[in-house]
Design goal:
It contains 9 helices and 16 strands. It has 313 residues and is α+β, with helices and mostly antiparallel strands. The chain is globular.
Length: 313
Amino acid sequence: MLAVTADDHLSGAVPADGPVAVLANPTAGRGRYRGLLPDLLERLSTAGRPVRLLAAGSADEAEAACQAAVAGGASALIAVGGDGTVHRAMQAVAGSSVPFGPVPAGTGNDFAVETGFPAEPRAAVEVIAAALRQGRSQPVDLARMTGADGTVRWYGAVLAAGFDAIVNERANRMRWPRGPRRYDLAILAELVRLRPRRYTLTLDGERVEVEAVLVAVGNGGSYGGGMQICPHADPTDGLLDVVVGGRFNRRTLIRVKPRIYAGTHITHPLVRTYRARTVTVAAAGITTYADGERSLPLPVTITATPAALHLLR
């Protein structure tokens, strides 16, 4: 990794040497932006630095390629894709001074849009290229996760640790059908099995026991392509927002879920919200999903980490 000093974090300066590394996911957004990639790379090259497209055949290879590029002296890292691509790439630059540019080109672009980038990929690249030319970056917080075995992961938007995570886990185990219908069938299967689970939350040292169906810990406010699960979360305030949906039955959950798009679910009497710098979430048999990506099994400890990422904007 490149050496990081306190001055690096405070200055917001973009390193002037080294190539701009680009991770692009050709299948993001069901491939609808694949033909744009040459144009995006050309626009990035106007910043006057060499542009290097990283090769990767899987999500794990993509993450490793980003780590290797940063360790090899990349002056910036760009991720072209959805939240999953952004999540994989940010592992390489979290906590460092190497600046990062998310180009929203997926079905879910919550982190990029919430941190102020245009939703259109070409417009986002123009913002990133201008920041590179002008040598500027802006710090934002990330959430730092630590698992029971000491594994550390970072995320920018939301950690799901309830019904949504359970549905994702089922969908990932299914071999049929392919595409969005697999997720729809996973929802139906888990609705049949729906039951509140017992969670232990530790919020800045204060222990809270809850029975809940939904649990989300947000550095940012939205997940799943615009669902405002943690509507008051701010990725620059040094805090995490925790939203807990309590003892929902199937009928109540079905009624409440559409309200998440507007963030009005938090007014429901079974929903509780908390805010803390450090949150531990413990429950049996749940694997979390961070930025939509399969992540660590519970228990996990999440810490809001100010200025952990420097965005090219």
